[in-house]
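Holo prediction — phosphoenolpyruvate.
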Amino acid sequence: MRTIYMLGNWKMNQSLSDINSFSEELAVAWTNMPKIAQCGIAPQAMHLSLLREKLPTDLMVGAQTCSEHLSGAFTGELSPEALSELNMSFTLVGHSERRHLYGETDGQINAKIKTALTKNLRVIFCIGEQLEEREAGNTESVLKTQITNGLKDIKPSTHIVIAYEPVWAIGTGKTATPEMAQETHAYVRSVLKEIGFDADSTSILYGGSVKPDNVEGLLKCKDIDGGLVGGASLKAKDFLALCYAANNA
Ligand code: PEP
């Protein structure tokens, strides 16, 4: 049995008034939510504590990225130690926007995962190919490189969750078909096995334009253990629908 997750990545969105109305609308429906899946939200860094205060305690709050260092002269960075002190449950690492807009390398991602694990944060390790890489038939080699470099010298850990997010599907409205996603998830699982991870118990989430109307088809696939969702996690109604689907998967 693998843990099913439904995680929202709010990116650089949601004003204070959006957060207030989201929390109020969510609180009303949350009490009736079956609590099987692990659901959570990654807001902008300055809203982490506010969300922890406003959201039900069984809804996780986590960061969108973190530093590979615990403290020191790293202006603008987010310490895994501080995240842990604030009772954050997880951090994303290696999101494609961090890799492609801010030049995060596999080496840095590997260091961030190692540091986050020392503070007991669950790491949502994001991987995914770009459109040109898929079209050139390189999806598997790209993912294998990201996984082997990202998890280099890291012992298998139940705190590591993989999020497979094809870059061409993020924020574009183009979702991989369930068949396409399943095939790639099965491949990711085979690579985890190859590097000595307990692949059968590692959750692998899908991300890329997941919405209430396509989530069920994706969650039915045997190697898809939940979702990492951007746009559709911003509205309480849609996020609740996604959490219901995860709890019923
Ligand atoms: C994401 O931000 O990780 C993501 C998958 O975004 P979206 O759901 O909007 O494609």
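READOUT: Residues 178-194 form the longest helix (17 residues).
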